[in-house]
């Protein structure tokens, strides 16, 4: 799964979408994926259509993705840039002025600060979240999405056709894609714990 290229991941997702009778535009929503990956929405849309990633340096990727995360957090919380910069300053031990420049996309953080921002924003994939090319960043997110929809043995992790009306698993998993990163991490940990418990009980 790790080495699956983006076109193959999209092919598998398209097959799953057809199997479940979903709309591709609903399941592979460029705006939602842009939020999850901190990529520009137009870039995500182009990649979903089979386009090529933009030519950009690693520094450009880092600056734009940090800015996207900072802008997204401020939009969700109503937080001012000065408050966000102050929170980063207090957490990571850098000046508020420097934190503000980094959040605005004007400066490239040091490796140490980038590591701290991984924890501050609660992103997965570590520093690679900020440094990977756009197609790799989107592919990681789509592989996670594919894994969340399919159990290890290939069973769909959605409500089956015979499930009753009260079975909301499929709906809940769709809605989970829009959760803020912090809440998704909590949900992800809970699901992992439940699956591990299920495996332990199955071995008895």
State the helical fraction.
55-70%
The appropriate CATH architecture of the largest domain is Orthogonal Bundle
| Largest sheet data | none
Q: Stretches where pLDDT falls below 50 for ≥5 residues?
A: 151-171
In CATH terms, what is the fold-level topology of the largest domain?
434 Repressor (Amino-terminal Domain)
Radius of gyration: 19 Å
**Helix and strand run:** HHHHHHHHHHHH
Strand portion, in percent? under 5%
Number of strands: 0
Helical run tally:
12
* CA-CA gap between termini: 29 Å
Count of distinct structural domains: 3
Kindly report the average pLDDT value.
81
Shape: globular
CATH class of the largest domain: Mainly Alpha
Condensed summary:
GO terms for molecular function: DNA binding. This protein is an all-alpha fold and 204 residues long. It has twelve helices and no strands.
Description of the structure:
- This protein is mostly helical.
- The protein folds into three domains: 6-53 and 133-150, no CATH class; 58-131, Orthogonal Bundle (434 Repressor (Amino-terminal Domain)), CATH 1.10.260; 166-202, no CATH class.
- It contains twelve helices and no strands.
- The chain has helices at 6-20, 24-27, 30-37, 41-48, 58-77, 81-92, 96-103, 111-121, 128-131, 134-149, 169-176, 181-202.
- It is globular, with a radius of gyration of 19 Å.
- 20% of the residues are buried.
- The model is unreliable at 151-171 (pLDDT under 50).
- One of its GO terms (molecular function) is DNA binding.
